[in-house]
Amino acid sequence: MTGHHKDTTLTRRRALAVTGGTVAACGLAVAGYQSAFADTATDAEASASASATATSTSSSCMTLMTSVTEGPYYLDGALVRKDITEGKSGVPLTLRLTVVDATDGCTPVSGAAVEIWHCDAWGYYSGYTTANPGGSAPAESEDGSTADDDTYLRGYQIANANGVVKFETIFPGWYTPRTCHIHLKVHTGGQKEDGTYEGGKVNYTGQLFFPDDVAEEIFTLEPYSKHSGSYTTLDNDMVYDGGGASSGLLTLKAVHKADPSKGYKGSLTLGVDPDAENTGAGSGGGGGTPPSGAPGDAPTGAPPSDAPSASASS
User: Fold this and answer.
1) Which value, in Å, is the radius of gyration of the alpha carbons in the chain?
2) Could you give the dihedral angle defined by the CA atoms of residues 242, 243, 246 and 248, in that order, rounded to the nearest 10 degrees?
3) By three-state DSSP, how is residue 191 classified?
4) Between β-strands 264-272 and 92-101, what pairing exists: parallel, antiparallel or unpaired?
5) How far apart are CA 283 and CA 287, in angstroms?
6) Strand-pair category, 251-254 with 264-272
7) Number of neighbouring beta carbons within 10 Å of residue 68
8) Residue 176 CB: number of other CB atoms within 10 A?
9) CA 58: distance to chain centroid?
10) Whole-number Cα distances in Å, 207 to 18, 270, 280, 287
């Protein structure tokens, strides 16, 4: 798989000492993980549910998901793993994604590799930890975690027989001028090798989105609240095109309705074409119109030199 290469000068040794302020922030994630990541359904129940869903939708299969830009912060070599947090603090998020073949009655795409990556609670991506997230935020190095600067909040999972993958992560933060989102790719034809996924081809490049009311409530909590500035809503985002689930809008369920800090469970079915090959450049200028009057303090780190143009790459 041909990938982008980052500037290795962005990597630094993590400080192991955690300050009092960051201990409080990290406590939020620790307190919520057990309940948020608990899956009350057995594997057998989950398989039966996925099979029933595929059967019920086979006669009226969902439309193909719309591919969008991979953005400027993609890195090759993400690890195959379920938990991608590496100790990053934030509101726990469990993702359950189902990959189906939209060209063949929504049959599960067994063995598909789903890759996701997203920013931390303050808007920083691993590999680009000095990129300015816009607004006012602490330096990424102040979060107190021992996460690896090259790999946090990135990972692959391989779909089971029902096309299902699960990830454990945190609710993403935001950066100017984008709304809250998670990037993803669906690969087929490759294999797990040396802890990552090699070979094959990318069938789909997309982004997952969150309802504004949920995101805005999350951002009032620690550690998100330490990042202040103008948050971009879905209607004003340059990538989200308003298509709901077919455009990547997640279905979210709070672990505890009265306490959003306990976490969320997000789910979505991805209707893809396993025979297609996607470059990650997106389509239609990135899927949306840039927000009017967007602040000029967008990320200023050093993304890959062959990243998409500014009109479609945020």
Assistant:
1) 18
2) 10
3) strand
4) parallel
5) 6
6) antiparallel
7) 29
8) 21
9) 28
10) 33, 11, 11, 11
Which residues are CB-neighbours of 119 under 8 A, at least 6 positions away? 73, 125, 133, 153, 172, 173, 174, 175
Lookup: tokens for 258: 């009265």
Assess whether the previous peptide bond of 304 is cis (omega < 30° from 0).
Answer: no
User: What pLDDT, in 10s, does the model give residues 222-244?
Assistant: 999 999 999 999 999 999 999 99
User: 19 is written with which tokens?
Assistant: 């300050």
Size of the chain in residues: 314
- pLDDT tens sequence across 194-233: 999 999 999 999 999 999 999 999 999 999 999 999 999 9
CB-based contacts of 11-15 (< 8 A; 24+ apart in sequence)? 11/149, 11/150, 12/129, 12/141, 12/149, 14/145, 14/146, 14/147, 14/148, 14/149, 15/141, 15/144
Distances from the Cα of 266 to the Cα of 92, 149, 165, 212, 292, angstroms: 11, 26, 12, 14, 30
CA-CA distance, 215 to 116, in Å (whole number)? 19
> In the structure encoding, which two tokens stand for residue 95, read together?
């993702």
Which amino acid, residue 14?
A: R
Residue 286 DSSP symbol:
G
Instruction: Write out the two tokens for 111.
Output: 């063995």
What residues have CB less than 8 Å from 28, skipping those under 6 apart? 89, 90, 91, 221, 222, 223, 261
Q: How many C-beta atoms lie closer than 10 Å to residue 16's C-beta?
A: 7
Residues ≥6 apart with Cβ < 8 Å to 30: none
290's tokens: 């840039």
pTM flag (> 0.85): no
Report residue 35 as tokens. 């309940």
Residue 198 token pair: 């090699």
